[in-house]
Hints:
Helix content is about 50%, strand content about 15%. The protein is an alpha+beta fold. It folds into 2 domains: about 30 residues, no CATH class; about 120 residues, no CATH class.
Amino acid sequence: MRKGEKTVVFENGTSYSGKPGTLNYVITDFSSHNSRIEDKEKKNYASYASFVPTLGLLNGNHHYTVELHWRLASVISTLLTPILALMIAMRLRGDKWYLSLIIGLSVFFMYQNCLGIVRSLLKSNDVHIIFGLWPVHLMFFLCLLVLYKHLQRGYIFKLGKLSV
């Protein structure tokens, strides 16, 4: 053994090797057995897009661009989903609070799933990188606009108060 080398010592044991019932099946009883633990190669994490700083993604390859779109998607969805929650809560007031919660969570999960699907399609080059995740954000934003127009028809805004 070399100095600094990692080893493990087994004492008073039995070793089994091979497939039971075949000629190469060996059972060995031992009082002490040393085994060297091999070090794994250290990986270069700089080649993984998820480990690259955001500014480093700007001048990168296809995988870096997909990662940049994904990081922007979390910021955009963080801005858009509270607006959706507010609009749903304004539309379904009173005793139906649980319904607005279920609808809001369902729409949020659909939005996140669509982002994940398009991200997978981008990674596998099934969708061109020019489009990115923007169609999903646009579709969600259009749903917000439709809900907003629907709210405007249902309520009259007067001095910050809602009245039916």
